[in-house]
Write a structure and sequence with these properties.
Helices cover 16% and strands 38% of the residues. By secondary structure, the protein is of the alpha+beta class.
Length: 172
């Protein structure tokens, strides 16, 4: 009787695993790279918007992939509506489906209706601070990770705040 119970438990535990393994075999990966239009092989971050586009933060601009082709957004010195820098470090899609990009020169917001960017710069010692990470913490507020510490960004007022967090948090 104990052997029957043991075999029942063993098979009952293995059967779901075998089913899961069979499902996993049907997963296929597609690789996309430079030959497909990706602007650079160094990708710092990937995110997906609500339309299904994949966004890649690379060493040579931001790349939007719609499943068929890439659109590459690079900084244009004569165009204030281009992304803040070619070196993009992070991409976040907030709850309002806004696409935020952290770059070596600051923060960029993509406007899909105009197919352009709005740029926001935080200067310290006369130099633009790079944004390395972005977290949407609540509606219309972003927390930004920089080499200078943590910044908050008020989306509605389009302002940076660096003195609203404790000094212990700034050191993270």
């Amino acid at each position: 009787m104990k052997i029957f119970q043991f075999l029942s438990v063993l098979l009952g535990g293995l059967f779901p695993c075998m089913m899961y393994a069979a499902i996993m075999e049907d997963i296929r990966f597609s690789h996309i790279g430079l030959e497909d239009g990706l602007s650079h092989s160094t990708v710092f971050a990937i995110n997906q918007d609500k339309e299904g586009n994949l966004w890649f933060a690379t060493y040579d601009g931001v790349n939007k992939y719609d499943g068929y082709s890439f659109t590459v957004y690079r900084h244009q010195y004569t165009d204030s509506n281009s992304i803040a820098s070619d070196i993009s470090r992070c991409i976040t899609v907030d709850d309002s489906d806004r696409i935020w990009v952290g770059t070596r020169e600051g923060l960029s917001l993509y406007n899909r209706h105009r197919d352009a960017f709005s740029n926001y710069y935080y200067k310290k010692g006369g130099i633009n601070v790079a944004v390395n990470s972005i977290i949407a913490i609540k509606k219309d507020w972003l927390m930004l990770g920089t080499a200078e510490g943590i910044l908050l960004f008020d989306v509605k007022k389009e302002r940076f705040f660096n003195d609203t967090l404790s000094s212990a948090l700034h050191g993270l």
